[in-house]
Model the fold of this input.
Amino acid sequence: METLSTLDKAIRLQKVDLFSDLETDALALAASIASQIHGPAGTVLVKEKGSTDALYVVLEGRVRLERGEREIASVGPGEGLGTLSLFDDQPSPATATCAEETWLLKIDREDFYDLLADHSDMTQRMLKALVKRVRSLLAPRPAVEQPGKGTPHA
Done:
């Protein structure tokens, strides 16, 4: 994969919930602290219960998330992982491993904090995006009708 320009990084970051409400100039600032990294298949990005200090956005490839020996999710192009690790220092709930050759953007927590310290308007927009995401995860989901449990037909 070719090296992405700051504009290309910004476009990729905008697809991640945390950055989705940022204006172009703020996205460019976030892109400027994102490093493009390569992970050959089998590369462990984060270990379960290990220290996490970065957000990753998959550019190409796939990252497998495992808890114990069980795969719990898969992250592909345009998706991010480790968003919450930018805001706290809790251990990782899962192991993240490159399932195939993978290219990613990586934003380290320290660089992220430095950016937010200099741009309070960006901080407000990101916090709103984060709260919106949490609310959507906590929102009641419509009940799924099970066969044989629905309204009787006449």
